[in-house]
Amino acid sequence: MPFHRSSAGPGGLPPEIAFLRGEGVESRLLIRAAADAAKAGTDAATALLNAGLMEEAAYYRALARALGAPYLAGPIRFGPGLRFPESLVTGLAPLASDSAVPWVVAPRGQIIASLLGSPRRIGPVAITSPTHLREAVFAAIPKRVADYATQDRAWHAPGQANARESAVWWLLVLALTLTAGLSLWAALPAPLARAAVLIVQSLFLALTTVRLAALAIAAPITAAVPPLTDSALPVYTVLVPLYREAAVVQALLRALAALDYPVLCSNLT
């Protein structure tokens, strides 16, 4: 989804962070977040949280107060319409029928600005953070989450779903190919057989000559391209969901830490 920059709120700040002034957040942090968002091409709330200028839970508590909505910090009782991954992608999930409000929302980016501009548009909701919503969904439907993770490759790349092919099948194809080649060779007259041998040898000689010539040709010299500065690099979010994989966590953390890329925020939950 393309990001549409929201209009400035009070004090020239984007509305998704402008309301935090009333919560006592320092103006210098909000100004920095707005500047980071402009450089990265993202929204100011994401820039604020990714830079570690404010805790995620504190931000969403403040957002709930600004919207006059309850904030869910503890266990979340979902309704029957819970979906994975749709509920996490949209940041919207149904609550149990006996809850005070029918929905829980973990908004991001432009949706936050829309809610602040017109909080009645979606009706009564509860607010929570995206991290807490994700943890609650994983805890509520762990089997569905695991099934989705294992079947995702089969759904989106069926040609790559089965990594292992039957070795017997390939051995059978190889044996049939060799048998057909030998039978054809035996059926050829002697002059044609010698001609076929000469053709094959000529092809191998030509390939060998090309490879030797390639070794003798110097590689073209290309001008060195100066590396981009950290501020010019695009922003990527790396999500690494784990389920019952404690044995590989340490190796995974070492691999992630070895990535040669600037880190805006490391949120390990």
Describe the 3D structure:
With 269 residues, this protein is mostly helical. The protein has a domain of 33 residues. It is 49% helix and 3% strand. It contains eleven helices and three strands, in the order αααααββαβααααα. Strands 1-2-3 form a three-stranded mixed sheet. Helix 2 crosses helix 3. The longest helix has 27 residues. It is elongated. The N terminus is likely disordered.
What is shown here, in short?
It contains 11 helices and 3 strands, in the order αααααββαβααααα.
Characteristic terms for this protein:
269 residues, mainly alpha, 3-stranded mixed β-sheet, 3 strands, elongated
User: Which series of helices and strands comes N to C?
Assistant: HHHHHEEHEHHHHH
Q: What's the total count of β strands? A: 3
Main beta-sheet annotation: 3 strands, mixed
Q: What integer value in Å does the Rg equal? A: 30 Å
Please describe the topology of this protein.
Blueprint: H1 15-18, H2 27-40, H3 44-50, H4 56-67, H5 86-90, E1 92-94, E2 103-105, H6 110-117, E3 125-127, H7 130-140, H8 142-156, H9 167-187, H10 190-216, H11 249-257
Parallel strand pairs: 2-3
Antiparallel strand pairs: 1-2
Helix pairs in contact: 2-3
